[in-house]
Amino acid sequence: MIRQLNSDDSKAIHQLFLEAYNGHWQWSEMEISQSFNKNYYYYWGVYCDQQLIGVAQLTLLFNEAELINIAILPTHQQHGLGKQLLQAALEQLKQQGMTQCLLEVREYNQPAKVLYEKLGFIKIDQRPHYYTDTQEAADIYQWKGNDDDKNFSH
Fold first, then answer.
1. I need a surface site. Which of 36, 74, 81, 105 has the fewest CB within 10 A?
2. Domain 2-144 class?
3. Which phi-psi region, left, alpha or beta, contains residue 97 (left: φ > 0; alpha: ψ -120 to 50)?
4. Residue ranges of the domains in the chain?
C-alpha cells in the first residue's frame, strides 16, 4: 500500500531514514514534523504488513517538484517498490499542477540512476565536487510529465 504521509508519521519517517541511510540522516524528527507545516513539502510512504518500508520526500513549488530523498529499507530493496513509490508520488503531484521534477543523485549511485531513467528522467547537468564527504559530483536529472509517457504508466 502507498499513501501520502502526514505529521503523525514523523517518527516513523525519521526511523526509516535513519535505518535506510545507516544512521547518516541529518533531519531530526522535529524537523520532519515541522516540514509538514510548510505548504511545499510532501511525503509518500510504502507499507508492507502495516510497516513503513519506504519514503519519498518531495517539494512542490508552483509547477516544479524536486525529489529530496527516496529510501527503501535495505531488506525490501530490489523488488520495484522504489519505482512504485516514486510513480505514485509523481502522479499525485501531476494532479496538483506539477509539470516537471528535478533531482540530484551521486554520480556513482548507479541503482538510483537506473530507477530514475526507467521512469523517464533524463540527465541534464552535473555539479562537480558537490558532495563534501567524497567530493563526488551530483548528476542532475529532470522529468517532464506528460500524459503519453510510456515509461510512466503502470
1. 74
2. alpha beta
3. left
4. 2-144
In this structure, how many other beta carbons lie within 10 angstroms of the beta carbon of residue 66? 15
Point out the catalytic residue in the list 91, 104, 107, 136: 104
Is residue 104 annotated as a catalytic residue, yes or no? yes
Would the pLDDT of 110 be above 70? yes
**How high is the pLDDT of residue 149?**
52
User: Is the torsion defined by CA of 24, 71, 55, 139 positive or negative?
Assistant: positive
Question: By three-state DSSP, how is residue 101 classified?
Answer: strand
Assess whether pLDDT exceeds 60 at residue 147.
no
Q: Which residues contact 6 (CB under 8 A, 6 or more apart)?
A: 36, 43
pLDDT per residue over 62-102, tens digit each? 999 999 999 999 999 989 999 999 999 999 999 988 999 99
Select which of 42, 43, 116, 141 is catalytic: 116
